[in-house]
Amino acid sequence: MKLNAIIFTYISPVNAALIIILNILEIVVMFKTNMQRVLSPSLVFILNLSISDIMVGFMIIMVKVFAFLLKTKYKGNKVLLESLHVTKNFMLRLSLLLSVLNLMTFTVVRMLAARKPLFYRKITRRIAINICYCIWLVALVFVTGYYCAMKFTLTVEENNKFETILFPLSTYVVSLGFCYCYWSIYASIREQKRKLAKSDITWTNLSEPSTSNWVKEKKSKQKKNKMLDNERKILRIAVLSVCAFMACWLPLSTFALIKASGALDGWKYALDVEYVFFTLAFVNSILDPFIYMLISHDCKKYIAKLFKREPDTETITITLSSL
Question: What is the largest CA-CA distance in the chain?
Answer without folding.
Answer: 90
